[in-house]
């Protein structure tokens, strides 16, 4: 089910870092029900692009709309709220908070908008189970491997059923079998719930489940 209105709409986006232009005039529309994989050489600007799509960084020109709302037109409070409620982000460096249990980490997006503790914990536990970490809710980040941390980050990014999923190499630390399980979760969110997803990846398995595969080069996004 692909809806006609894009959840993510990027127009004429430009970005330079330290006087090097990463991209200029980059456009991308991703509809609900669509999963887009972005490939590209190291250093080409994929993570920078994802950060701009999430409103964590800003472009030099152009606009990014999420569900019709232009990120640059929002003040920081509203942009943060939109990010928390409508976007699920899997960072390359996970950003699992060390002083919270894994359950509390996964529950965070829900806890920020609801006070129903029991319901929140149950959903966090279900999400941990979905990434194969159902028994680890009471553990802390220091007790986990890189691949396990990556799965906690994925659980946290999906728990609040975001409209837009942005993921930076979400299967980079996973064995092929675990990677397939994780990719199924992204695919389910997109196909069953109508979310839109942009996944930066080097993995052929991720590209295989994508509706579109685009490559970022200095000239922009190309099929
Ligand atoms: N805050 C910053 N200040 C200066 N340079 C930066 C900054 N952020 C990113 N860069 C540079 O911008 C370029 C793009 O970085 P980015 O992390 O977006 O690339 P990438 O395509 O995601 O790379 P990789 O596949 O290795 O993760 C790199 O050359 C990086 O060094």
Automatic annotation (TrEMBL):
InterPro entries assigned: AAA+_ATPase, ABC_transporter-like_ATP-bd, ABC_transporter-like_CS, ABC_transpr_LolD-like, MacB-like_ATP-bd, P-loop_NTPase
Keyword Transport (UniProt): yes
A Pfam family assignment: ABC_tran
Organism classification: Bacteria, Pseudomonadati, Pseudomonadota, Alphaproteobacteria, Hyphomicrobiales
Boundaries of every ABC transporter domain copy: 8-223
A GO CC annotation given for this chain: plasma membrane
Family: Belongs to the ABC transporter superfamily.
GO molecular-function terms, A-Z: ATP binding; ATP hydrolysis activity; transmembrane transporter activity
The protein's name: ABC transporter ATP-binding protein
Signal peptide as annotated in the record: none
Keywords: ATP-binding, Nucleotide-binding, Transport
UniProt-listed PROSITE patterns: ABC_TRANSPORTER_1 (PS00211), ABC_TRANSPORTER_2 (PS50893)
Listed Gene3D superfamilies: P-loop containing nucleotide triphosphate hydrolases
SMART domains: AAA
């Amino acid at each position: 089910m692909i809806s006609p209105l894009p959840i993510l709409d990027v127009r004429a986006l430009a970005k330079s870092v330290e006087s090097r232009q990463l991209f200029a005039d980059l456009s991308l529309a991703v509809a609900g029900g669509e999963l887009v994989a972005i490939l590209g050489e190291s250093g080409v600007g994929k993570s920078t692009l994802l950060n701009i799509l999430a409103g964590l960084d800003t472009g030099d020109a152009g606009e990014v709309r999420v569900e019709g709302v232009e990120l640059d037109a929002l003040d920081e409070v509203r942009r943060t709220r939109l990010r928390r409620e409508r976007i699920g982000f899997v960072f390359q460096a996970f950003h699992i908070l060390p002083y919270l249990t894994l359950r509390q980490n996964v529950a965070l997006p829900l806890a920020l908008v609801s006070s129903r503790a029991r319901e929140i914990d149950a959903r966090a536990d279900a999400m941990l189970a979905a990434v194969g970490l159902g028994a680890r809710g009471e553990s802390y980040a220091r007790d986990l491997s890189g691949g396990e941390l990556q799965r906690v980050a994925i659980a946290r990014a999906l728990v609040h059923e975001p409209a837009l999923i942005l993921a930076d190499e979400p299967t980079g630390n996973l064995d092929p079998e675990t990677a397939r399980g994780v990719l199924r979760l992204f695919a389910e969110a997109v196909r069953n719930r109508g979310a839109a997803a942009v996944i930066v990846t080097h993995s052929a398995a991720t590209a295989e489940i994508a509706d579109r595969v685009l490559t970022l080069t200095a000239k922009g996004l190309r099929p």
